[in-house]
Amino acid sequence: MSSPRNLSGKTAIVTGSSRGIGAGIAIDLANRGANVVVNYTSPRGEVAAAGIFKDIEATGSKCAVVQANLALTPDLQKLVDAALAISEHGKIDILVHNAGTGDDSYLADLTEEFYEDQMNVNLKAPIFLTKLALPHIAQGGRIVMITSVSARMGIPQQTVYAGTKAALEGICKVWATELGKKHGITVNCVSPGPVATDMWTECEPDVIAELQPAIDATPAAARVGEVSDIVPIVAFLCSEESRWVTGSVLAFAPFARAMHIRSIPMWTGSSDNYAYLVIDDKTKDAVIIDPANPEEVAPVLKEQISSGKINLTAIVNTHHHWDHAGGNNKLLAHPEFEGKPIIGGKDCEGVTKTPKNGEGFKIGDIAVKALYTPCHTQDSICWFMEDSTGRVVFTGDTLFHGGCGRFFEGSAEEMNTALNKTLVSIPDDTKVYPGHEYTKANVKFAISVLQSEPVKKLHSFAENNKETQGKFTIGDEKQHNVFMRMDDPVIQKATGKTDPIDVMAKLREMKNNFKPPPDQKL
């Protein structure tokens, strides 16, 4: 769908507009009829800016490309002059402060040079560019500042970056009053969470891990944002329709962090286990689930503790098998973990507490409930967790994405109860975190029984993603997990059974004996 030409004749400056969000904004404003000043700083940006110039010219709008180092105040005048040169009425109508730099540093390593580099681009430049442009901004002009949820999330290493973005949000409210009554200018902030740009893909893994809670808790959808999610909001704030909106911060992720789950792969390539670190970000209270291989788990926990990121309160187990609970005592032998309680089934190594079915405990603000699911082992417990931002369930070896565990200590009737009475009853939006990465193998069997669209989608995802934990919900499992579809006529036909328990028993037998053809295709 083409954009409405509701900005025809307007002139806009978009800083940092050779790539990423800025490029998207510049092209979108041009599509809506605005003449646009595109800004870049480095030689890398020059080539990209030339491409943006061509895209804007193709819309029929005018474009000026300006190399300007925003850290240098004299360069800011170049942007104002370029805007006036392409303006159809000698005025600037829209000023979008998008440029920013965001390197990370712990406070102990912070230097004045690091501080000044970010302050000059992220904060000083918007202030003084606005000052220079102000005499030329038309009555009813628009100022939009791109900030960040980092301003409110308390992410380690972002002392300067978070400070600059928080300052812009404060300035937004000052200018909304100061410039609104005198000049009729509206001033607003757009505050994205993580957005899929080249800057995001270049982030260090630990930074991405820190931002995962914001991604998981984003109300609109638990995913990284796209540039196309941001630009229409900016366009609205630049339009006449936004005339009654000023001093606002439009955020795309929650203000407060909540439940954070960090997966710790163990024995990758052999048993492909997962341990899970569950953190309540508000209190920093945390538990570690199934830390069966301390050699891989302990270094992660020690780093988190030493940096003040977590307060480890307990070890939690889903069942007693060695590859889930067999590392408990060895982990407790480390001084950092000495005396921590072990919460799990009655047969787990060193267990100190076994909640009754339906009972639980708290991890900060996270409510935890034990769901007894005997079959794989008789002490199997699935741990359902919930806070204000979402729900998850840790299913051990009871439920996998697209599959279930073997009936080592139980029966088909017990597994049917575990999956299709107990787990099926929790909310559909509950994310599933299984004990192993078995999805690819599970879906090969599933597709041999049920070639439905949900199963095909799971197959495609498994083929293209090394890790699948937490990417699917109970609602998804009801659609693509053949062990949770006992009433499906196709599955009943494949098993030759109709009674749910008989279907479960036969399906598990078929899975145990299944050997996928080497050329299996969908």
UniProtKB/TrEMBL annotation:
The protein's Enzyme Commission number: 3.1.2.6
Record pathway: Secondary metabolite metabolism; methylglyoxal degradation; (R)-lactate from methylglyoxal: step 2/2
Swiss-Prot/TrEMBL cofactor(s): Zn(2+)
Record field: catalytic activity: an S-(2-hydroxyacyl)glutathione + H2O = a 2-hydroxy carboxylate + glutathione + H(+)
Domain (Ketoreductase): residue spans on this chain: 10-193
All residue ranges annotated as the Metallo-beta-lactamase domain in the record: 272-436
Gene Ontology biological-process entries: methylglyoxal catabolic process to D-lactate via S-lactoyl-glutathione
Molecular function terms from GO: hydroxyacylglutathione hydrolase activity; metal ion binding; oxidoreductase activity
SMART domains given in the database record: Lactamase_B, PKS_KR
A Pfam family this chain is assigned to: adh_short_C2
Keyword set, alphabetical order: Hydrolase, Metal-binding, NADP, Oxidoreductase, Zinc
Enzyme class: hydrolase
Annotated HAMAP family: Glyoxalase_2
PANTHER family: BETA LACTAMASE DOMAIN (PTHR11935), TENZING NORGAY, ISOFORM C (PTHR11935:SF94)
Name recorded for this polypeptide: hydroxyacylglutathione hydrolase
Organism: Lachnellula suecica
